[in-house]
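>> received
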Amino acid sequence: MTIDGDTAKLLAFMDSHGIDASTEVSRGWASIGAIIVDASLQRRQNYQATVKPRVDALLVAWPDARTTSGFRKRLATGTLSEVIDWPSPGRLAQIDDLTCVFEDQGIETVEELRARLTDPARRPVLRDALAAVRHVSPKTLDYIDVLSGLSTGVTTDARIRRVAEAAGIEDTSYANMSAVIRAAADSRGWRAEDLDAALWHFGIESDPASST
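>> returned
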């Protein structure tokens, strides 16, 4: 099946189920610490039950984590695992490694992160540095786009793949679905981020127990 064919299937499914992506939806954070923690915890986890409550707890406990330097000072206290109630060392190590990348790249605020990700010359350098961190996949890189508030951000996870399968799309690979979502958004004059969010929320409502 071609991308055009899969796009038509997705749009037909959306129309039949009343899925609307015409409203701008933000899934981002205004805090560097929140972006790093969210991106590190989301892999194979239920977002609503596991990830979001921990990011919310971080924002309350560490408001100065809005900046990379503020987040680093908090990390130096060694209390992150208690703040987000996460004892597993693997994810905590990933959080530290991602913070190191932001420091090395001179990124202090979410605004600076967005600027870097929208700079054609500097974006590949940042993404290559992030990709060198253990467990950072192409999906995680695109997810950081979404968390930073980019309108082109698309991140195909288990929820969206389930919607695609229900729409009759056979190739639910990350690459194909990213292309299909962008094509569908372009055809309706929507932002890709808003279509991604609409499908993501529909997937949660269809199966609240699902994980990334």
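>> Residues 3-25+154-206 form one domain.
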